[in-house]
Each structure stands twice: as C-alpha cells, then as structure tokens.
Amino acid sequence: MPKKGTRKPKVAVGDPNDPEGLYVWMKRFLEALRVKNYSARTVENRESYLGFFIAWCEARSIGRPQEVTKPILERYQRHLFHLRKPDGKPLSFRAQYARLVPVRAYFKWLTRQNALLWNPASELELPRLERRLPKYVLTVAEAEQVLEQPDVNDAIGLRDRAIVEVLYSTGIRRMEVLNLSVYDLDTERGTLMVRQGKGKKDRMVPIGERAIAWLERYLADARPGLVVPPDDGTLFLGATGEELSPNRLTQLVRGYVNAADTGKRGACHLFRHTMATLMLENGADIRYIQEMLGHAELSTTQIYTQVSIRKLKQVHTLTHPGAKLGNHDDAVADTDELAAPNAAPVDGPSVAKTNVTAEELMARLADEDDEDGDDVAIDVAVPHGA
Predict the structure, then answer these.
(1) Domain with 73 in it: what CATH number?
(2) Mean pLDDT of the chain
(3) pTM above 0.70, yes or no
(4) CA 220, CA 228: separation in Å to the nearest integer?
(5) Cβ-contact 298, 364 below 8 angstroms
(6) Residue 383: what pLDDT?
(7) How confident is the model at residue 356 (pLDDT cuts 50, 70, 90)?
(8) What's the structural domain count of the chain?
(9) Chain-centre distance of CA 225, in angstroms?
(10) b or e along 224-252 (b: 16 or more beta carbons within 10 Å of the residue's beta carbon)?
(11) Are 56 and 147 found together in one domain?
C-alpha cells in the first residue's frame, strides 16, 4: 500500500552520471535535509522546485553549480515572472517565491560544503509578497449546508460527514486529518491529538460534542466495514480500506462545498478559515485561535507560551457555533473575561501580550493554504533549448 502523501516518482533532470553536476549535488542536498529531520513533504517540495530550475539550466547547457552566476539566477527569476501555466495564467508572486527559496537554500548549502567558493544566490532579491486575506469564508448557515451534504445512510457518506465535522470543529490541516488515528480522540476530555503536524509538532486541540458524536457513529457503524486487516489504526479509510490521499480528500470535501451551492469555493482549508473567523466573531482571543491553528508564532518577534488545553477547550465551547449538540446560546455564560483583548487566561499559564491583529492572523492563515492555489508544484515543461 503506497504511503499517504507520497507523489509519483520524479523523472531525473540533469546528468545523473556527472558527480559534480547540478542533479547529483541536488540529491546530496536532499539527503542532508533528511538527515536534519526535515519533513518528507518539505523534501519533496524542494526536489520539485529544484527540478524545475535544473531543467531550465540544462536547456541552456548549464550543468554544474560553478557555471551558475548571479546574472543567471536573475535570468531564471525573470523566466518565472514571464512563465505561463497551462491555463495561460502567470504564476503568482507567491508561487514564484516558493520556487526561488529552495534554489537559494541549495546554493547556500553548496557554499557551506565548499563546492562553491562564493554563493551566487546570496544577494538574490525575492519577490515582495502581498498580504492577502482568505477569499472565501463560510457563514454559520453556509457551513451547516455543507455539513448536511453527505449521505449518512451508507458507510462512505457517514465517513465523509465525520471528516467535515472534524474540519469544521477543529480547523486542523488536510494532512493532519489524514494522519489521525483512532486513538487520537479523547471523548472524555473532548480533545483531539494532532500528531506530527506542520513542523513535526504535536498539539492537542478541542473538538466539539457534535463532531465527537459523528466520529463515534462512524467508528461504530462505518469504519469496521471499511477496515482491512491488519488494522494500523488510521482513522479515516477509503472504500477498499486504503488510506485516503491528500488529493482525494480535497476532491471529496470540495464536492460537498460545491453541492451546497453557497456560491463559495474551497475544500479542507475553507473550514480552517471558517473556524478561525467564526471564533473571532464570537469573541475568542486571537491567542487561543492561534493555539488551535498550530501557529508557533505570528511574527519573528512575538513568541507565545503554551495555552492550557482546559482553558482552550472552554474558549472553543463558548465561541464555536458547532461545539455543542444543543443550542449554542444555552452554553454561553459570562464571556467578558475570556473575550477581553490580551487578558491573561484564567487558571492557565500567563501569555505574553500581543499586538497581532485579526487581519494578520487571517493573512497568515491564507498564506499557508497549499490546497487550491498555484503555490503547489506545477509541472510546466521546459522545452530543450528554449
């Protein structure tokens, strides 16, 4: 069974028989990243983006790192600016940025390995990135419309309902959903353990009663019929017992969003935006939302301490519309203390004050979206000799 999140084998670019060639040095660079415990996803992305660069160099008879100069790198940057995707649209500046960062890291590493006497990418200026906010965010009514789309009369529909309930309640990332185990749900405490999230960090997040109820129903009525021995404990399984792929998860969630006919587009990340926005609108402090999202920091200078899961669970219950099985209004007591900006958490560790705004939080959230935009790898063929 193929490992979830893996991609198809990549075609070698450059000359794999030249021990001093760009391709062979790239393979050494990727191995160095693995030794330093970089995530497989990061290594794969860097391999893809460096592959584009090496293919571009090969088309111009540039085969070794010593042949790459700053003007050549600037020429490659201009190439990315003028490059068009299969649909005729240009790469966004964020996508250009994503392709240039691995190139700069690659040449920095080559210099440290003494393969180069100087780093031609040291003064390469990366594109300035715009600050953007999420394009689409669901209202409470629209979110409920999407949640009602799966047909819960069969095992697959019941699984899908549990998936969208988890996405809506917790706002966790797509890969974090796929990595969930049946043992990560704590129904007694109302929490979900997210293991090896972005940056290989574990965190615990609150999950609402309704999402727990759907998960328990899925575990009792649907998963036993999907699992194929030996059972490795993966929570969400495909129709034949296989692990869901990231693209398959995106497709099924996007299908339900489109079927709801709200006029808004998106998939897994749409629920991440929605969860954060709705909790903000209902008075949750930005720090608690940051903790749920798994953002270690919102800027290079503002570092936060860990928020206690008990207080975070209370904030989630008070501010998330889907946290309770009954009427949300019945669960809301006196929230003034919790909603006060920058107030210290009650019965929890002190948290440093922050000047981070809701707009900055949402911009950071939009920046990490690798699901529906053109920040992901785009296989654009570079004609030989172009």
Answers:
(1) 1.10.150
(2) 80
(3) no
(4) 15
(5) yes
(6) 32
(7) low
(8) 2
(9) 30
(10) eebeeeeeeebbbbbeeeebbbbeebbeb
(11) no
Does residue 6 fall inside a structural domain?
no
Binned at pLDDT 50, 70 and 90, residue 347 comes out as very low
CATH of the domain at 214: 1.10.443.10
Percent of the chain with pLDDT over 90: 48
- Nearest 5°: the CA angle 301, 46, 11 is 175
> Does residue 128 belong to any structural domain of this protein?
no
| Residue indicated by tokens 């693209």 | 247
* Spatial distance between the Cα atoms of 288 and 206, rounded to a whole number of angstroms: 11
> Over 60: is that where the pLDDT of 96 sits?
yes
CA angle 244, 248, 249 (to 5 degrees): 75
Tell me which of 306 and 207 has the higher pLDDT: 207
Domain that holds residue 195: 140-367
Q: Are strands 185-186 and 191-194 parallel, antiparallel or unpaired?
A: antiparallel
* pLDDT interval class at 10 (50, 70, 90): low
- The verdict on 78 and 145 lying in the same domain is no
Task: List the catalytic residues.
Answer: 173, 198, 269, 272, 295, 304
> Are both 260 and 347 inside the same structural domain?
yes
Residue type, 336: D
End-to-end CA distance of the chain: 40
